[in-house]
Amino acid sequence: MSAIILLTTLSQIANPISLAAKPVNQISPPAIVRPQNSSNQQEQLNQGIKLYQEEQFSEAARIFQQAATAFKTAGDGLNEALTLNYLSLANQHLGRLSDAQAATNRSLALVQNQNGSKEYLSVRAQALNTQGKLQLAQGKAQLALKTWEEATKVYQKAGDQAGVIGSQINQTQALQTLGFYRRAQDTLENLENNLNQQPNSLLKVKGLLSLGNTWRVVGNTEQSQQVLEQAQKLAQELRSPQIVAETLLSLGNTYQALANNETRQNNQAEDFTQKALQTYSQVSETAASPTIKIQAQLNKLRLLIDKKQLSEVQKLWAQLPTEFEQLPLSRQKVYARINLAQSLIKLKQTDNTNNKDTQKLSANPSWLQVAQIVKVGVEEAKTLEDNRAQAYALGTLGSLYEKTAQFSEAEKLSEQAVQLAEGISASDIAYRWRWQLGRIYKATGNSAQAKGAYKQAINHLKSLRNDIASISRDVQFSFREEVEPVYREYVNLLLEGNPTPQNLEAATEVIDSLQVAELDNFFRRACLNAQPVNINNIDQQQNTAIIYPVILPNRLAVIVSLPSQSANKSERSYKLEFPKVDNAGNFVTKEILESTVEQVSQEISRPSGGDFLAGLQNLNSWLIEQPFQSDLQNVKNLAFILDGSLRNIPMATLYDGEKFLVEKDYNLVIVPGLQLLPTTAPLTAERLERQALVAGLSKLSEARKQEYQEKFGVSFSDLSNVEDEVKQIAEKVKVSNQQKLLNDDFKKSAVRRAVKSSALPVIHLATHGLFSSQAESTFIITSDGEVNVNELRSLLRNRETNQTEVIELLVLSACQTAKGDDRAALGIAGVAIQSGARSTLATLWSVTDDEAADVMVDFYNNLINEKMPKAEALRKAQANLLQTNRHPYYWAPYVLLGNWQ
């Protein structure tokens, strides 16, 4: 009678209409307690379970309610409790959270005074599992964790191993939501070890299957691959065709996630794509279950469309109508239809690009055919009385009318979808259709309503921070396609015409929220409790300009927030500029900007690089000269909130034709978003002495170098200057031997001991590391392994036991960004956030020459002896080195993130 409720959010938001996203909810079908003399009630309960398994949740809830009443009348409290538990689950699927809460409360009350029998223990454990699921859905992650921990104990008392596995997996979801990555990973690793010690059985296979899916969701795709391949092999040995098909389907999803990893080399990505296609083909050819078969076919179809293998698309598309007839009526069937419609929309959009191969498809569907598929889904959702599925179907139908410029009908359908979604508090659905309404209003010239719709869409997204951050990229969902554009399009709308100061300020707030959303997506969880920050509380000297470049759909916009020049110092002024690329008034487009950034970043990051001054001069013109050069008389600090690939360019290198920006009197800092800016007061220079950890690693074994080359496509050479750097900085900040870790002594355990033994406001790590747009590919290297960005919290600070510790400055002096990853510098912000440091000094590329040590020593001298603010200390150290070597390769890779004071 055990059920694992694997609480990923994949089926809720990552791609709510993707069958691939469906978690493995049960290790074994629920077994029913069979009391005497209750055959009618028992039949009702079994009927309800059957309907629930078929995802006919509304009818299942009705039957469960009847059965619960009948068991109550018969005085059968145990089965009443069990039935109420299922009723709660059905109501949760339907978005009826208050009804679900009432059923769960009643269920737990009935088994509160348990008699110790396995039956009572098992029902109580299931009710606790369901309560935890509800609490997490309500945003009460701490309560959910406590509830699932209790469920685990009760399952253990009942001797229910399947239940133990499921409740432990649930705990990892709560731990992830709370930000306790290390504990979540430890729980998963312990669970994996326990499963491996179990004898081979279907229970073990299903446990490994759930575990493999969970590893993928938390971003550890390689561990997911390993576990799922083990599960698949074991399922074949046990000769269980159904489980073989399920494990292969999950394995295909993991291969697709591996292929989507932006840091992988092209040949690796293609290899994983082919593996995914082959695996989906194998499932569709061998699966006995029509549901699993169509899952594989739909996943394969989308992948074929992405790869533009259009002849294969035609073959598969022709088979699908027949396959749909085999599916029973269920929410899953509705989602499958919408999934198919989305793939066909993408195919139609490929058609609109005049792709010759697409035009040759004899069976290329018309818009009418696609709409008919969705209309059937709408009617099926109505029959099921499933408001969630109906909201998806109606909104998708509205999107078809939008794409064919039938705006009146599109608006009506979208409004119906929004009403249904908001009626069941389904923000993951509502944001999509509010966004769609915003586009429709804009297209029909209703700017005010469009702004309102976009604002509501973003409010829904903010309420979903923890859910969006749990998104796995192994299905159709793409942050870049389905979240990021909402923010950019809203900013574009706010900046149209002659925007008011209020609209300019609102636009900066939206840009700031986009920065937070990007980091949430990077971590697959809410990275921090983002809070609005009053910049005047930090910029008390009124000498800081905040620069917001934002890449809009058709042009670059630059907003600058300037200190007030009026008597009211609390008010800041805002200026807007759309930089021009030439005297003819042509705007700087995304394509022009990214081409310039790519060319410049390649040239300045290698010592032999040449042709970069023209590009840097263009960037200076677009980001500073055109927008606000004349407004900088009273400005001392320039704080950049950078967008997209601009993060890969050190702002110090901007060039006006005579000087680099670092040669002027502006202190420079990168801010990952004002909402994430540490606001605590800086420590004095005296506090920084004798309270630092200085560590470094100068060499890697050839085996480790080869491993990193193969795994991440990065070449790590020896850092010959690191030993001198560590020695000189250790002397400069006067640390003890215990606070200096070099080469073999630089182990994770040694760092943890040093940090735990005393509060260390400065941590300096001179070691190789990689910054990437993927959290799993962002790490720093120690002598005994890597420290993943998600492990930094537990390694560098003991936040769970002492919330008052603050790292004033984290320095990573030999790291580099991943080549070919236009958002690799996002990893630097990720490291800064995870470390909890007020300020982080990092490198965009690794400099192996003596100049690196010179900059660092000079920086610390300025910081401690000269008592300069951190941004000024760095600027002067860089400017000093620039006097002897003007090539940016040597002095420019250093960037300061966070607080500049």
From TrEMBL:
Mind telling me which SUPFAM superfamilies this protein's record contains? TPR-like
Q: Please give the Pfam families that the UniProt record associates with this protein.
A: CHAT
Show the InterPro entries listed in the entry.
CHAT_dom, TPR-like_helical_dom_sf, TPR_rpt
Q: Which SMART domains match?
A: TPR
What organism is recorded for this protein?
Halotia branconii CENA392
Please report the name of this protein according to its UniProt entry: CHAT domain-containing protein
Instruction: Give start and end of each CHAT domain.
Output: 616-899
